[in-house]
Write a structure and sequence with these properties.
two-stranded antiparallel ribbon; TIM Barrel; alpha/beta; single chain; 10 helices
Amino acid sequence: MNRIVAVNSNCYHGFPIEEAIEGIRAAGFHYIELTATKGWTEHVFPDQPFERLLEVKDMLDAAGLKPFAMSGHCNLMDTARIGDFVKNIRLAAFFGCDYIVSSIGEAHLKDNAVADNATVARHVAALVPVLEQYGLTLVLETHGKAHGTGAVLADIVRRVGSKRVGINYDTANVIFYGRVDPCEDLKTCIGDVAYVHLKDKAGADDVWDFPALGKGHVDFPSLFAQLERARNDSPLSIEIEFTAAGPQSLEAVHQAVRDSADYLRAQGFAL
């Protein structure tokens, strides 16, 4: 299967970007999704010194990793945060990314605001000129109780009506937040999916448990088959978030990334 297969640097939440780059490179990957999520994982961030951003760029080049996407979550419904998100768009362009990922609300932080789909679509549509300016595609992640399924996001994306906006389908978030079967939910939105977070799910639906690929119960072969039948060549980005206690060690993260690489190779993917 020939498509971009990447690793989200958020797998290395709590560890420096240097360790993420080394672990992802050593596992055989050639693409990375950089994480710039305020207050959670700031592997790169707009307030970092220019010299530091250049240093990260040089490290990526030396490792043969292309930063094709950036996880730049902001609350897109909070007008006070839109300026922050535009900075993340500009940062993504600086690194040469093609995609910027965001949930509609603030990922991982408390956010109780819920708006109807039409209002959300208007807020997102207002970002399209900036996305056009910097040549980026915004992919909205299935995340949170209000926007935790592909079916809901498909309605929003269709209301926006721009090729610059699509869905980032997170294969485990739809279980954890949306309480749906991803194999069924994907059918409702596959034409609007432009990006996929490959994330496995172990344990009960409401338990934070996201292990290496193949270690949980997500039916990835069925999901891959759906994408192939639909001729949907969206990039795949691995995200491993472990349990609420986090990984036992840096080596445990490295091993999970290696295990995920082995799983995808066994499924016929070239890294």
